[in-house]
Amino acid sequence: MAQAFPRIDPQPDLDAILEAMVYLYTESRRITKSLALAHGLTGPQLVVLKMLEPVGKLSLSALSGRIRAKNSTVTGIIDRMERDGLVVRRRSEEDRRVVHIELTAKGRRLAEETDVEPMQMFRDVLAELGPRDSADLRRILMKLARRVRDVVQTHEGEPPP
Amino acid sequence: MAQAFPRIDPQPDLDAILEAMVYLYTESRRITKSLALAHGLTGPQLVVLKMLEPVGKLSLSALSGRIRAKNSTVTGIIDRMERDGLVVRRRSEEDRRVVHIELTAKGRRLAEETDVEPMQMFRDVLAELGPRDSADLRRILMKLARRVRDVVQTHEGEPPP
DNA sequence: GGCGCATACTTCGTACGCTAAATATCTTTC
DNA sequence: GAAAGATATTTAGCGTACGAAGTATGCGCC
Questions:
Q1: Which residues, 6+ apart, have CB-to-CB distance to A134 below 8 Å?
Q2: Which residues of A touch B47 (CB under 8 A)?
Q3: Which nucleotide is nearest to A62 (CA to C1')?
Q4: Reduced to 3 states, what is the DSSP secondary structure of residue B118?
Q5: Could you tell me the pTM of the whole model?
Q6: A70 Cβ contacts chain C strand, under 7 Å
Q7: Strand C and chain B: which residues 93-122 have CB closer than 7 Å?
Q8: Whole-angstrom Cα distance, residue A128 to residue B148?
Q9: What's the Cα-to-Cα distance from B24 to each of A78, A148, B71, rounded to whole Å?
Q10: pLDDT digit string (tens) for A53-97?
Q11: How many CB atoms lie within 10 A of CB A65?
């Protein structure tokens, strides 16, 4: 019964929630982008830089998994970061299919002096919520995410011809 | 004090919320895209089509305002929809700077026979929430959105040199 | 009635972001 | 141990998405 959504009751909250969600996401993204620009970075490049900072290197697949993008997308992002001298590619010795992405000295320096976190605006306003709201929001969003994950999983591997 | 966010207490909920939010948004978008594809549309094209369906025509700016994109982005989307015969551009008589985007017969037919709503997956799981959670979620998100709007407004017009 | 400013849209260049197909390497299986 | 299948990455092509600059039109004001 996972795919039956009767829609008997057109909840009035629904559109408002959707609208707020889209607004928050797109606006935060836009602001992150403009903040990153001040350091000569794009939004996704900032995300990659901050992801590499604590660990130094990651495989391309590990990166794409964490930023929820496809490998082909991350290939492009890394191309430009490599062109700008922020990272280098290095073939793994254990598995020669794998490419490790490593921070260069320049990349590390930039990561350190860049105080912006991805989705900074979002974090800022979230931090202003009281503990009650914060916990509620977390609980409800995780519930939604779990449902989506279930539906996606079961619908995997049967696209309409 | 609008820009001072002490970050004294690194709330543990924060990252989980952010993660769930990004997951829900990107996954819903991805699914909408693949559903739209079954009707020969892209995600944004579906959004525009559904937005035009009830009213028939809108100015390009009105469209870009509602889908939270810039005019230059929407110009491209409309270019491709016009190429595919779904809409036509018509200069406004009252204000000759304005371009109205109108559904063609083909566009209207497609809109009618396309049962997918934008962010369908998101709507589906939202509709499963109880009224309590639904109201809470709405209240909290609107509070966040209001704060973002305030911050964006006050920071408008002073980018770093 | 023309000058300056604002608004609506387009064009251009860059950067994602995706799918499908190609390449290279690993793993399994017989 | 070679063929068959799985996995990691890249390439190519298309469609957003943005900012900056350009064009056309409207509007206020002297």
A1: A126, B11, B13, B14, B17
A2: none
A3: D8
A4: coil
A5: 0.87
A6: yes
A7: 95, 97-100
A8: 11
A9: 25, 7, 26
A10: 999 999 999 999 999 999 999 999 999 999 999 999 999 999 999
A11: 13
